Amino acid sequence: MVSLVDLHVHSSYSDGSNSIEELIKNIKTAGIKMFALTDHDTIEGAIKIEKIIPSDIKFIRGVELTCKTRDIKCHILGYNYRSDDKTLHSLILKGKDLRRQKLETRIKYLKEVWNIELTKEELDWLYSRPSVVKTHFANILVNRGLANDNLSAMKKYLDGCKTGNTRFDGEDAIKIILNAGGIPVWAHPLGGEGEKHLNKDEFLPKLETMIECGIKGLECFYSRYNKNEIQFLLNCAEKYNLLISGGSDYHGSNKQNITLGKLNIDNYPIDINKLTLVNFLNVQ
Hints:
This protein is 41% helix and 16% strand. It is α/β, with parallel strands linked by helices and 284 residues long. It has a domain at 5-86 and 183-283: Metal-dependent hydrolases (TIM Barrel, Alpha-Beta Barrel), CATH 3.20.20.140. β7 (217-222), α9 and β8 form a beta-alpha-beta unit. α5 (134-143) packs across α6 (150-158). The longest helix has 29 residues, at 86-114. It is globular and about 50 Å long. The two termini are 30 Å apart.
């Protein structure tokens, strides 16, 4: 059973496999009644998809910013921002420059370390993307038969590539989201795809830092989290008066075993009323 709400979804404007038209079709098929498009470091897809959303589906503008908040590497989700905010657009343009640096570094790394030289067609495809991430390189490597799937391709060929600090400053990102009328939420706070999940003692000091920096919510429901992890995050959100969000982190075929509306690892049904972010946004 899946949720009727999914507040963490990606399209081909970042590293999802679905175009915005395909995404809407898949959302309707899945029975999703409310969703947020949260592409990495770009709002281009969110601006465009908003114009073609069917009237029976509620859409929330979103973005997922790749950040370093003091000493914490994290992803910050921004919801319901003003899409014409100039400071937010300046941050997004800065993100394009940072991702371009990563792109050039990874191209060089594959050639020098692995003797993998990308073709003109592969390079043209990468440079045409609004937001390039490791998944795009992994797709190329899988298509060449150098790995069986994206995750193993990234681990073998790309995880050793040092790209330097190309993340947004998390405190700045949080302030910009807030100033644009949005809500900043800590994405998959116990750890994302392929990451070791934090235990209580590791997580709580980081949470206190994130709260000091202005975070307003936690992504408590997440496709890779089990019931105990979700309950722990719900308890933290209640204790610190944080909004509760939930999302699948859907990427289409670019992430395995994640379907739209999958808000926990076992697909057990959740009480949508626990997603206090939804209630808060409905009030605004």
